[in-house]
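Propose amino acids for all 757 sites.
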């Protein structure tokens, strides 16, 4: 005990001595990647930004994380991150950058925390390299530059890790409680995803703590109970509150936070189940093959002038859906085929896997000579922790039915930790041993360079041959020279080793900069030359990679032309749940090219036909606009519609009602007025009944309804009643005529008025 206390005192003393000057440029790099130009993203992920706008208006909305100012429905995630974003917006004003800022700072904080965690046990150079690897992991800045939750989640889990390590060093029970309580806080950020690190916490505490088994079990049991209590605290309060005194819990089918946590945001992510349960309109999701077949038939019946664009769509669609090796890529948004090599497939590998081969060699080196029964060194114990974080998370992403590319940030800390610790360990083995362990360093460099060439090869048209050939050639040369010079340990060898590390980080660094260079997508953040599309995959040959993204979806009443929509896709027409985006539920990886239009590949957002949910291919890094309206929803609302609704409002609570959040969010952001998303995020929540809607209309709460062709799951009866009992407003009174006719599976959106006495 005295020895451990002296170690803590020595650590405090060393930390007070001086700042690590090598850490300063690493932090500056992280700050640049996370912060630069976030002020150009005017509304970020508008689904979440609309919630912040609503939460600013009352404590009731703030506590429940209400999507709309009227407190009708919540967003589909717990509130902690959005509480932080709302506080930031309160301090700095409501802007896109003010809701992004907390996540950007969390990304920088994660780099610093990883440095602290690795430095103490593995050495200062290991800490530096781990911090740099974390900063340059492409998906890390891509996510941190948005108002999505995951960057803050990772920071919170790393903070919990720091507390756990301190608990082991000091043998103080309070730090154990704090560590597990912090995981409970993380649960209130993104629910079950926070629990993915629990195997690492349990294994490390059992192996590393020098106390009796009786105390270990007692401490862990108590800490787990506290974690569970913190995790469900908000859920219990919400679920215990009468439904008529709070918003509906968005994206649940039973108006329950716990159902949301363990169903929609839990098991359904693993299984990919997309059935719309809890309503009278349960529809199983189509398989992608059925979807593609259906679309092919629709395309064959389209107008003659769509023949050429149809071929372009097929080319773009097939390239987007190809996995390495030629098979169809079944995961939605380039998440690959489930299997042991999924993380090496296109769409995932360029987000997270650049250093994975080096990590594998590092794990071999760090555990070389370890005996099952111990004793274990401090390095081996902490290596076990990072391995117990890495493996379960990697297994999940290898088999999961549904996730988005940016969830892969959960793998960044253990990969960066092993990259830093392994670089030092393998270098030491290279210099000190003549057995097989001395070959781990050149082997790791060679295989990692080979993987990076493989990752970049689909992007030849975007980045050119030179960087690909350069990484491959330098990787091979440096690995061979290091192998040849194994017996000659001098300063030149040291420089060669440093050069190899630079080569291995060069292309991840470039990839990490792509959201700045090419533009990011705040709704589906990803890295790569196609980063603005939110697809994170190789660019289609049918469009310039620098302009293959979307800057949002069009609002109600603004029709979309077909001149710039060359990279759009459509969700399956046979599923009421639509192809959902974050924070939406899964769609079992379903994607559809468009049917019968010259827009080569529309993607319909849940709950909207193309008139209100198209993703125009209009953003590029060379855009003349000083503000980028990203995030899947075009913040430029239809001013003519807004003027009509405002002028004709006679005291109704809601400006208008619509099927889903896609149509509602830009108007909430623009005006701060309540807009009712009748079916929640995707339009599939069974919130309304006909009788409830009648009562709302009679009370004068709502009279205008904007309906499009999708998002009917759970509310078809309501929509049918609206159409049968309303007056259709002529489009000339509210619809913009600045571009060509609207398109979509069910035609134009329509504005209705209902007044009941």
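Proposal:
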């Amino acid at each position: 005990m005295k020895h451990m206390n002296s170690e803590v005192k020595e650590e405090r003393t060393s930390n007070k001595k001086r700042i690590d000057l090598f850490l300063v440029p690493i932090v500056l790099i992280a700050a640049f990647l996370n912060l630069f130009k976030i002020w150009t993203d005017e509304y970020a992920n508008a689904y979440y930004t609309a919630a912040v706008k609503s939460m600013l208006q009352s404590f009731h909305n703030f506590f429940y994380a209400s999507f709309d100012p009227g407190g009708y429905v919540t967003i589909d995630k717990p509130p902690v991150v959005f509480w932080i974003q709302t506080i930031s917006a309160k301090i700095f004003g409501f802007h896109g950058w003010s809701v992004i800022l907390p996540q950007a700072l969390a990304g920088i904080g994660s780099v610093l925390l990883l440095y602290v965690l690795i430095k103490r046990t593995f050495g200062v150079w290991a800490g530096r390299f781990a911090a740099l690897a974390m900063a340059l992991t492409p998906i890390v800045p891509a996510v941190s530059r948005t108002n999505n939750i995951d960057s803050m989640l990772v920071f919170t889990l790393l903070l919990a890790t720091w507390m756990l390590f301190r608990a082991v060093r000091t043998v103080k029970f309070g730090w154990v409680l704090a560590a597990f309580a912090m995981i409970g806080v993380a649960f209130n950020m993104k629910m079950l995803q926070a629990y993915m690190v629990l195997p690492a916490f349990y294994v490390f505490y059992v192996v590393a703590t020098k106390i009796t088994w009786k105390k270990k079990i007692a401490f862990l049991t108590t800490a787990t109970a506290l974690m569970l209590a913190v995790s469900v605290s908000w859920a219990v309060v919400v679920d215990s509150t009468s439904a008529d005194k709070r918003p509906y819990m968005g994206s649940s089918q039973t108006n329950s936070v716990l159902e949301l946590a363990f169903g929609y945001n839990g098991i359904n992510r693993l299984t990919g189940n997309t059935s719309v349960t809890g309503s009278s309109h349960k529809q199983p999701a189509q398989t992608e093959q059925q979807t593609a077949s259906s679309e092919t038939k629709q395309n064959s019946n389209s107008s003659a002038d769509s023949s050429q664009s149809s071929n372009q769509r097929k080319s773009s669609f097939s390239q987007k859906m190809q996995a390495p090796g030629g098979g169809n890529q079944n995961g939605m948004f380039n998440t690959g085929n489930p299997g042991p090599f999924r993380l090496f497939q296109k769409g995932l590998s360029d987000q997270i896997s650049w250093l994975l081969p080096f990590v594998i060699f590092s794990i071999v080196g760090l555990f070389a000579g370890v005996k099952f029964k111990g004793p274990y060194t401090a390095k081996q114990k902490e290596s076990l922790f990072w391995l117990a974080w890495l493996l379960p998370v990697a297994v999940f992403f290898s088999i999961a039915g549904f996730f988005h590319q940016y969830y892969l940030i959960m793998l960044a800390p253990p990969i960066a930790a092993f990259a830093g610790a392994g670089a030092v360990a393998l270098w030491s083995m290279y210099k000190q041993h003549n057995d097989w362990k001395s070959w781990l360093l050149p082997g790791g460099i060679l295989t990692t360079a080979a993987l990076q060439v493989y990752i970049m090869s689909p992007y030849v048209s975007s980045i050119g041959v030179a960087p690909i050939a350069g990484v491959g050639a330098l990787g091979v040369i440096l690995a061979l020279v290091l192998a040849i010079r194994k017996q000659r340990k001098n300063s030149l060898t040291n420089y060669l080793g440093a050069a190899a590390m630079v080569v291995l980080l060069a292309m991840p660094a470039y990839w990490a900069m792509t959201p700045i260079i090419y533009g990011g997508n705040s709704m589906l953040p990803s890295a790569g030359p196609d980063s603005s599309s939110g697809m994170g995959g190789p660019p289609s040959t049918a469009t310039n990679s620098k302009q293959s993204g979307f800057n949002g979806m069009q609002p109600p009443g603004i029709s979309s032309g077909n001149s710039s929509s060359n990279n759009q896709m459509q969700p399956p027409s046979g599923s009421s749940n639509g192809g959902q985006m974050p924070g939406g539920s899964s769609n079992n990886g379903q994607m559809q090219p468009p049917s019968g239009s010259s827009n080569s590949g529309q993607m319909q957002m849940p709950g909207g036909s193309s008139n209100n949910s198209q993703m125009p291919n209009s953003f590029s890094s060379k855009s003349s606009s000083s503000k980028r309206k990203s995030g899947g929803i075009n913040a430029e609302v239809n001013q003519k519609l807004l003027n009509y609704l405002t002028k004709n409002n006679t005291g109704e609570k809601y400006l208008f009602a619509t099927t889903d959040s896609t149509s509602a969010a830009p108007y909430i952001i623009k005006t701060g007025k309540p807009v009712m998303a009748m079916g929640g995020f995707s339009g599939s929540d069974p919130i309304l009944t006909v009788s409830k809607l009648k009562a709302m209309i009679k009370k004068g709460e709502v009279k205008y309804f904007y309906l499009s062709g999708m998002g009917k799951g759970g509310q078809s009866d309501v929509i049918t009643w609206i159409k049968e009992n309303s007056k259709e407003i002529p489009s000339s009174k509210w619809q913009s005529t600045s571009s060509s006719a609207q398109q979509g599976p069910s035609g134009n959106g329509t504005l209705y008025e209902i007044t009941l006495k």
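The chain has a mean pLDDT of 80. The longest strand covers residues 704-707.
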